[in-house]
Give the backbone structure.
Amino acid sequence: MKTSHLAIISSLVALCVATNYALVGVPNVKVMDFIVFVGGFCFGITAGALVGILSWTVYGVLNPYGFVPQIWLATMFSESIYGVVGGLLGKNFASTDFHDQRVRLIIFFAATGFILTMVYDVITNIVYAWTLNIPVITTMAVGAPFTVLHEISNTQIFGIGSAMMVTAIRKIFQGERFGISSK
């Protein structure tokens, strides 16, 4: 892997971790998922997955809410899904002009953020319940307000931010398949 690729991935990981600590007082409202998704979208599947895994590697070990290995592994895996899906979509949208289809893209990215967050929440809630020997239905019921907040906030963040962020990154990297994933 080139030094420039490592620098981009490291920068995105640092941004994920820093924003998570900055928003630690606001439960389940984070921009990490969005950053991982956009990282995958712009820099490819591998980069997106690495950003998700490495972000949780750091944040999970130094988590202000505590460290539980099973939950940590589940969050690393689940976070990487944002980057993988972002990478898959990035390949399909590589030639899309984001200015001409702004409203459609906002709706598409908002729905994508909602679905990915729902998958993330289901996986992590199941692992949480299993780890602590709590019935899954109880975990889902008790955690419902946090889950709903996570899904609503990510829906908004993905919808509002994705097209703008991708457009900005495209300008910075002058349209090439953004410097990391040429495959």
